[in-house]
Amino acid sequence: MKKLILTLLTPALLAACVKSTSDYEGPKGTEKAWNDFDFKTVAPTALSLDYAADAAVYFEIYDTPPVRENALGTAYEKIDGIEPLYANITDAEGHFSGTAELPAYLDKAYVYTPNVHAQTLLTAEKEGGVLTASAAEEPAATALSATRAGGGYKSAAVTDDGWKTWLGTYDDTYGRINYAYKGDELREKNWKQLFNAANKVFDTSKACPVEYRSSSDLYLEKDAEVAITFLMSNTCWNCSMGYYYYDASEHPASLADVHPVMIFPNTQDGQWSNDPKTAKKYKGVDRGTAVQLMFYPKIAEGSMEGAKTVFPKGYRIGFVLATNAWGNRLPNFSGARKYRAATSDGLSVNDKGVAYKQPRTAVYRYTNAALDLNSVICSFEDYTTDQNFSDVIFTMKSNPVDAVVDIPSVEEKPGAEDTKKEVRLLKGIYAFEDLWPSQGDYDMNDVMVKLDYEKTFGDKGIYEESYLFKTFNNIAGLENGLAFTLGGDAASAELEFSILRPASKENATPAYETYTPERDGNVILLTNNVKTDMGATYKVTAKYASPIAETKAAVVKPFIYRTTDEDLTPGKRKEVHLPFEVPTGKVDGKFFGTSDDKSDPKAGRYYVRGNSYPFAFYLAGATEIDLAKLLDPQNEKTHIDELYPAYSGWVTSNGGNNTDWYK
After folding, report:
1. Pick from 48, 396, 475, 566: CA 20 to 30 A from residue 170's CA?
2. Rounded to an integer, what distance in angstroms lies between the CA atom of residue 462 and that of residue 493?
3. Distance CA 471, CA 534 (A)
4. What is the pLDDT of residues 84-93, one digit of tens each?
5. What is the pLDDT of residues 54-85, one digit of tens each?
6. What 3-state class would DSSP assign to 14?
7. Residue 617 CB burial class (10 angstroms; 0-12, 13-18, ≥19)
8. What is residue 19's predicted lDDT score, i.e. its pLDDT?
C-alpha cells in the first residue's frame, strides 16, 4: 500500500517532504466513497440571558471560569490568560436573546461582566438547545425574617464612633431607613441611566483611573440644598455610610472633629456578586433610595437646634464609610472593622485605628443633556483593596446644580455612544496536512494557526475589527504559504496589515510592524512560507467610518497554499482548505479527485476523503494548551486519534459524540 501511494508523488514533492505518508486508515466503520462528515466543531447556539438589571450590561462568554475569589473571599479577581469566546451587550433591561457561533462542545458556559451594576459571574446551562443564564431573584433568596434575625442590631459607627442618627429612624434588623427623600427636585429620577456612566469609570476587573481618585471633599460655591441617591454596592460587607461638613477654611484634624451623621446604617444592597442569594437576606438599602442631607449649625455642641436643609456657601461636604459596622452581617464576614474610608485628606482610618492619607474615594460630575443628567458620582473603596473603587457608589445633586465645584467632569454629547467596548475573542486553531491531494501521516500539524478576533463595538455596531493569525513552529518539510479569504464589510473597507515577530536577542520587546501582504481581491496572501517568520502573528484590521451591524462583520477562511511544486500548472497553486470549502480561483483544479482526494467540483464538493481524517480542520475554542500534543515534536507522525483517543468516537458519530475530544 505504501509503495503504491509513493509512486503517485512526483520526484519534486518527494524531495520537498521529509516525512513519509501512511496507510493508517484510523477509526473503523467509516469507509465510504467519500466521507460526508464535515468535521465542524462550531454550532449556531441560541443564548438567553437575564441580568435582571436596570441598564444595559456588557458580557463575555467563556468555557471555563474567568474569575476566582481573592484570598479573603471578599471579591472576584480576573484570571489572566483566559480569552472569551463571545461578547455582546444586553438591552436596557439587562436581557439578551440571540444566536452566536460557539464551539459545539459548549453545554455549560460562564458569563462574565466587568460592569459594576450587574452580577459578575453567571453560569449558563444548555436547556433545549439554548444556553440560559439568569440573575433574577428566586423565592428562596428573600430577606431573612425579623423574627429569625432577632432584631436589636446597631451600628458600631454609632456605638463606638458617636455618629449622629438625627436624620430619622431605621429598623434594628436590617438598618432600613424611614427617612428616604421622596421629592423630585433633589432625587435623581434617572438614576438607572447613571449605571452606564458609572461603568465608563468603574470596572470590577481593573483599577479605577487615578484621575478620578480624590481625597477632596465637595466644595459649595453657593448656598445649596443637597441630597444623595444610592446607586449600588458590590461588597460582602454590611457597611454604614455617613456625611459631615465643615468650613472650608478650617480643615478638620480627625473624624471625631466633624461629628458624622448617619445616612445609611447598612449599605448592603443584596447584590454582592460572589453570593447574591445570601446577600439578599442581609439587604439594608434598595438601589435608587435618596436621602436629603441636613445642616446642623450647633452640631459641635451636640444640638439639633436650627437644623435646616440649606448648607452655607464656603462649606465642604465629606462622606465616610464604616466597614462592616452594621451588626447583622453576612456569614463568614462577621467581624466588625475599625476601617473608615473618608473623602477628606488625612481623615481615613485603617483597621488598627491609625489615620492615613491614601485616597479611598472616587468622584466626578457626569452630565448628559439628552438624558437630563447633571450629577456628581461618588464611590468608596472599603476595607479590602481591589482598587476598582466600586464597593459603594452614589450620586449627589444640589440646588442650584452648579453649587458644587472643583471636581473632574465627564460630559456626554448628544447621541454619544455610552457602551462602546474593546474586546479580544478566542476563535480557535486551524490544523493542516500539507500533502494534498495525497494522504499524509495525519498528525495534523504541518501548519497550525491560532485565530483571535478583536473588535471595538457598542449599541450602534462595530467600529473597528481585527483578525490575528498566530503561527507555530513545525517540522514539515514543505514550504507552505498562509492565506485567507475575506468576507463581510471588511472586504471592501480600507485595511491595515501588521506583523508581530517573536522575541529574539536582537529584538527583546517586539511590537507590531507595518506589513504589506499580497492581495488578490478578497484573497489575502499573508506569507508564501510560514517558516520565514515562524511563530509570527499576522494582523489585519478594518476601520469603519460609521459602525456596521454585527451581521456584516468580517469573515475569514484561512487556508495554506504552495506555488513552487513542479507539477503545478503555471499561474496556479495548490490550496488546502477545510472540508467542503470552496477554493479560490487560482487553485489548480487538475488535482481534484486524484490520489486520496475525493473532490467533485461539478457537485460542489471539495477537500473530502474516504476515511476518518480530513486534510484540514478548525478546532473552535482550542488553545495552545489544548493542542500541546500536536505541537510536541516528539509526536511527529503520530496519528491524531492516537494522541486524542476520543477523536474516533467523534468521527464515527459524525460529530454527535465526544465534541470536546480536543479539550
Report:
1. 396
2. 13
3. 6
4. 999 999 999 9
5. 889 999 999 999 999 888 888 888 999 999 99
6. helix
7. buried
8. 41
d(CA 227, CA 404): 12
DSSP 3-state assignment of 198? helix
Task: Tell me the three-class secondary structure of 98-154, residue by residue.
Answer: EEEEEECCCCEEEEECCCCCCCCEEEEEEECCEEEEECCCCHHHCCCCHHHHCCCCC
d(CA 524, CA 517): 7
DSSP state at residue 467: E
Distance, CA of 211 to chain centre: 23
Collapsed DSSP state (helix, strand, coil) of residue 385: coil
Q: How many helices (H) and strands (E) does the chain have?
A: 10, 36
pLDDT in tens, 174-201: 999 999 999 989 998 889 888 887 887 7
pLDDT of 243 above 80: yes
Q: How many CA atoms lie within 13 A of 327 on its CB side?
A: 14
Taken in order 621, 627, 631, 636, the sign of the CA dihedral is negative
Q: Which of 68-72, 199-203, 273-277, 505-509 has the lowest mean pLDDT?
A: 199-203
Mean pLDDT of 307-329: 95
Q: What are phi and psi of 258, to 5 degrees?
A: -105, -5
Instruction: Give me the torsion for CA of 512, 515, 521, 527, rounded to 10°.
Output: -100
Distant-in-sequence, close-in-space partners of 617: CB < 8 Å, separation ≥ 6: 39, 41, 430, 431, 444, 578, 579
Phi-psi region of 65 (alpha: psi -120 to 50; beta: other; left: phi over 0): beta
CB 616 within 8 Å of CB 430: yes
Average pLDDT over residues 329-342: 88
Rounded to a whole number, what is the distance in angstroms from the first to the last CA of the chain?
34
Residue 647: closest CA among 418, 442, 384: 442
* CA-to-CA separations, 43 to 105, 129, 426, 631, in angstroms, rounded: 9, 11, 15, 26
569-603 pLDDT per residue, tens:
999 999 999 999 999 999 999 999 999 999 999 99
Query: Which single residue is written with the C-alpha cell 471539495?
Result: 606
Beta-carbon contacts of 413 under 8 Å, excluding residues fewer than 6 positions away, are: none
